[in-house]
Design a protein that fits this description.
The chain is α/β, with parallel strands linked by helices. The chain is about 35% helix and about 20% strand. The longest helix is centred in the first third of the chain and has 15 residues. Its EC number is 1.2.4.4.
């Protein structure tokens, strides 16, 4: 080795070791990465700038990128949505935050009537490259309007993608993909697991594919399908079933709309049984769509009726009964055993 080569090695910058981070930190990391590499990306919402967001998802971004790219807005969700659609129509890539899941309802007019229709309305000449970030779901003992699972509202709307990650790594990769997508994406973040555990995530800008279900665990006896925070309980249920000699395959849907039904159908063809887990109310929840597709396209593969473990057809009860409302490991295990004819 000559002296020049040795000098280059000695002065080279060390490669940073990927850190173990929480899901909320993965969101912040993905936002910062894309803002560094694409000047058209900006963030807007209530308290996202100076305060860094109510959950601190945007902490430090205004200091890095300035108030023109990290905008604190009035407490007016209708205006936030309208401004976001307008920015996207003019070539920007806005990322709006709905501070809580129950605050999205005033935004629906702009999202459904305009953002979701741009491509169709203009026969492909225009698109609407925006992301609406929605802290989603129960389990944090919050007041009314702060703990809702309303993903089915958006899955019924043509022209929208609906994404719901379940881990730090998938949150990072899927958010990057959502920002880069030319069409509107509703990105729902399970706030119950924002800081529940850490995972090593490389800040390398590598997006994960949208519209893909992720098989998190192989199995042969039964298929467990879930998304968002409930994936954790579903994996724990699979562990408990394994202790009783039952092999459960676990699928994280991740992108609800458009649905990668082929991955679910392939799993059910192997196992013959399926349990769908979500915290939204049972009636017309997105699990009903998956169950209907299985009835239409996989009937001859099913050895038992599809089971659903869901929230109840009520508003989520406040505080003391909140965790009783949400799907539990024991409820998932019991449903699996019913499908297997064990109970």
């Amino acid at each position: 080795m000559n002296a020049a080569t040795q000098a280059k090695i000695d002065t080279a910058q060390p490669v940073a070791t990927p850190a173990a981070i929480t899901l909320i930190e993965a969101i912040t990391q993905a936002l910062a990465y894309e803002m560094r590499h694409d000047d058209s990306v900006l963030v807007l919402g209530e308290d996202v700038g100076v305060n860094g967001g109510v959950f601190r998802a945007t902490a430090g971004l205004q200091q890095q990128f300035g108030p023109e790219r990290v905008l604190d807005t009035p407490l007016d969700e209708t205006t936030i949505a309208g401004l976001t659609v307008g920015l996207a129509a003019q070539g920007m890539k806005p990322i709006a935050e709905a501070q809580f899941d129950g605050f999205v309802y005033p935004m629906l007019d702009h999202i459904i009537c305009h953002a979701a229709r741009f491509r169709h309305r203009t026969r492909g000449r225009l698109s609407c490259p925006m992301v609406l970030r929605v802290p989603w779901g129960g389990g944090i003992r919050a007041p009314e309007h702060h703990s809702e699972a309303n993903e089915a509202l958006f899955t019924n709307v043509p022209g929208l993608r609906v994404v719901l990650p379940s881990s730090p790594a998938r949150a990072y990769g899927l958010l990057l993909a959502a920002i880069r997508d030319p069409d509107p994406v509703i990105f729902m973040e399970p706030k119950r697991i924002y800081r529940q555990y850490k995972e090593v995530v490389a800040d390398d800008g590598e997006a994960l594919p949208l519209d893909v279900c992720y098989v998190l665990r192989d199995g042969s006896d039964i298929t467990l399908v879930s998304w968002g925070a409930q994936v954790k309980e579903t994996l724990e249920a699979a562990d408990k079933l394994a202790g009783e000699g039952i092999s459960a395959e676990v699928i994280d849907v991740a992108t609800l709309k458009p649905l990668d039904f082929a991955t679910i159908a392939e799993s059910v063809a192997k196992t013959g049984r399926c349990v769908i887990v979500h915290e939204a109310p049972k009636t017309a929840g997105f699990g009903a769509e998956i169950a209907a597709r299985l009835a239409e396209e996989s009937m001859y593969d099913l050895l038992a009726p599809v089971e659903r473990v869901t929230g109840y057809d009520t508003h989520i009860p406040l505080f003391r009964l909140e965790m009783k409302y949400l799907p539990s490991v024991d409820k998932i295990v019991a449903a699996a055993k019913r499908a297997l004819g064990h109970g």
